Amino acid sequence: MQRILALKESNQLNKYHQQKYMSDNVNAIEEYISSLVLDYSRLLKMV
To answer: pLDDT tens digits, residue range 10-20?
Structure first.
């Protein structure tokens, strides 16, 4: 019984870390895209 509870707990921790990793990735991608958009708009102003 104790082992089952330990497995369940580690499974939930793994899920949490996966979700955190995914959201960190999404944030990084959003930052990258917004910086690209900024660069592009600066280029357009130069022309």
So the answer is: 999 999 999 99
